[in-house]
């Protein structure tokens, strides 16, 4: 009992001095945030968690649901979260005593005779490293911050996969629309070719006129195979995002004109940083690095370990649990590295340099997030205006082409005028489809810049 009291008193004294433990530095970026975004002064309207539903596409909803359960990147990110959680449990175990028990029996012979003895032992041992300088606590905190960072990384992967899937889906619809437009252009060119052939037969058009229109028909027809190729390749890319073989991927028919552009507005820059998982990932990584620095500094100081064991030992199994068979021991040790070739101080320098790098990465993540929102706001505004202008241009070009075709049949214009009118119409139709795709992808870019619908 006196030994137990002495050991307990020593432990209490050590714990009372635990306030000397090395603490990690505060996690700050040191950046001054702007008061508001340059491209938007509207009240905040954050994206819905299911932001893609605002595009009014049941097929996109189906694809998003399939990606949630089948995407390779999302599954890999989830596995990394489980790994980080396991590492946190491993690191946290050092804060608790290690306890082990054993049952032993042995038989030995001594001397040259036949004297043999048997022993029976039952023991319970415990050891505990007093975290006097905070080494184990800082290691556990670093692992906990790393586990937290893995969750932010998984959220970033989820958002990236969703944005890529939406953009790929819109690209497929856009290319299908371009293929439809190109087919209509080809039909219009062939219709004019029929008129010119009739005029050549009647002597009112020349062979040059016929050759020029045949060239235009061939040019329009030559663009169709590349569009079909693009549709197939985009569908294959969609399969990779969904985690499905290309043969199992099917995208239902749909048109760009059926899609809607959901509205959203950013709030304050400070609010944005709490909604961007990539920024929070960088912050958690920096916090983990600061804890690593504190742990490396604590490793320079002595370590204190307490150990105790107790049990029973007897030569006869029947008397093993009697009081006189009890055995116990208590021990305390103080260990200090005297010479390690500078390895521990090198570890401190390494941890500090890594933390400095992560401060820069944290700042970069913040500035990148702000720039992403500004870029996305500009892109959505300008692509919306561009689509409206190209819609007007396509309407005017279609009206001009109809007039030119009627005048050609009446023989009041030459073929050069008609060719120019056709080329303008064909170009305007394709440009309109491209403008619609750009606006849809700009909307996706804004949702992604705002952190999607993710919240802590």
Protein model, in words:
The chain has 456 residues and is an alpha+beta fold. The protein has a single domain, classed as Outer membrane efflux proteins (OEP) (Up-down Bundle). It has 10 helices and 4 strands. The chain has helices at 2-16, 58-70, 72-92, 135-202, 207-222, 224-242, 269-273, 277-298, 343-410, 415-449; strands at residues 98-110, 115-130, 303-314, 326-335. Strands 1-2-3-4 form a 4-stranded antiparallel beta sheet. The longest helix has 68 residues, at 135-202. The model is unreliable at 11-19 (pLDDT under 50). Pfam families: OEP (PF02321). It comes from Teichococcus aerophilus. It is found in: Cell membrane. InterPro entries: MdtP/NodT-like, OMP_efflux.
What keyword list fits this structure?
alpha+beta, 456 residues, four-stranded antiparallel beta sheet, Outer membrane efflux proteins (OEP), 10 helices
Q: What would the CATH topology be?
A: Outer membrane efflux proteins (OEP)
Measure the end-to-end span.
Answer: 53 Å
- Name the average pLDDT: 86
* Helix and strand element order: HHHEEHHHHHEEHH
Class by alpha and beta content: alpha+beta
Q: Biggest sheet, in brief?
A: 4 strands, antiparallel
DSSP summary: helix tally? 10
Proper CATH architecture: Up-down Bundle
Radius of gyration from CA coordinates? 37 Å
Count of extended strands: 4
In spatial order, strands of the major sheet run 1-2-3-4
What is the strand content? 5-15%
Query: What assembly state would you assign to the polypeptide chains in this entry?
Result: single chain
Overall outline: elongated
Can you identify the CATH superfamily? Outer membrane efflux proteins (OEP)
Task: Report the CATH C-level class.
Answer: Mainly Alpha
Percent helix among the residues? 55-70%
Signal peptide: 1-18
Family: Belongs to the outer membrane factor (OMF) (TC 1.B.17) family.
Keywords: Lipoprotein, Membrane, Palmitate, Signal, Transmembrane, Transmembrane beta strand
Protein name: Efflux transporter outer membrane subunit
């Amino acid at each position: 009992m006196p030994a137990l009291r002495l050991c307990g008193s020593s432990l209490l004294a050590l714990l009372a001095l635990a306030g000397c433990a090395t603490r990690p530095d505060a996690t700050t970026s040191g950046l001054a945030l702007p008061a508001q975004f340059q491209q938007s002064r509207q009240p905040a309207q954050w994206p819905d968690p299911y932001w893609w539903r605002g595009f009014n596409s049941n097929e996109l909803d189906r694809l998003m649901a399939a990606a949630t359960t089948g995407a390779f990147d999302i599954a890999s990110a989830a596995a990394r979260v489980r790994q980080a959680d396991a590492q946190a449990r491993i690191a946290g175990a050092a804060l608790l005593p290690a306890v082990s028990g054993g049952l032993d029996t042995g038989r030995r012979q001594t001397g040259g005779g036949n004297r043999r003895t048997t022993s029976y032992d039952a023991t319970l041992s415990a050891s505990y490293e007093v975290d006097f300088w905070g080494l184990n606590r800082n290691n556990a905190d670093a692992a906990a911050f790393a586990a937290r960072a893995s969750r932010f990384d998984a959220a970033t992967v989820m958002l990236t996969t969703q944005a890529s899937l939406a953009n790929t889906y819109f690209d497929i619809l856009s290319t299908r629309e371009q293929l439809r437009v190109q087919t209509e252009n080809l039909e219009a060119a062939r219709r004019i070719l029929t008129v010119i052939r009739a005029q050549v037969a009647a002597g009112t058009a020349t062979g040059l006129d016929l050759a020029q229109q045949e060239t235009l028909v061939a040019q329009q027809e030559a663009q169709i195979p590349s569009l079909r190729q693009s549709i197939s390749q985009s569908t294959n890319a969609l399969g990779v995002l969904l985690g499905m073989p290309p043969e199992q991927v099917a995208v239902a028919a749909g048109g760009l004109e059926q899609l809607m552009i959901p509205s959203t507005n950013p709030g304050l820059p400070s609010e944005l940083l709490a909604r961007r998982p990539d920024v929070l990932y960088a912050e958690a990584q920096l916090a983990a690095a600061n804890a690593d620095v504190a742990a490396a500094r604590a490793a320079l100081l002595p370590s204190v370990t307490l150990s105790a064991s107790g049990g029973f030992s007897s030569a006869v199994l029947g008397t093993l649990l009697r009081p006189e068979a009890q055995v116990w021991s208590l021990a305390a040790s103080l260990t200090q590295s005297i010479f390690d070739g500078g390895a521990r101080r090198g570890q401190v320098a390494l941890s500090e340099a890594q933390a400095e790098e992560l401060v820069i990465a944290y700042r970069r993540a913040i500035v990148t997030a702000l720039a992403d929102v500004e870029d996305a706001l500009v892109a959505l505004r300008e692509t919306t205006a561009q689509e409206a202008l190209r819609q007007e241009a396509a309407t005017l070009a279609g009206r001009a082409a109809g007039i030119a075709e009627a005048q050609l049949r009446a023989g009041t214009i030459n073929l050069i005028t008609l060719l120019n009118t056709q080329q303008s119409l064909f170009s305007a139709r394709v440009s309109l489809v491209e403008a619609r795709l750009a606006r849809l992808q700009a909307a996706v870019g804004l949702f992604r810049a705002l952190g999607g619908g993710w919240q802590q």
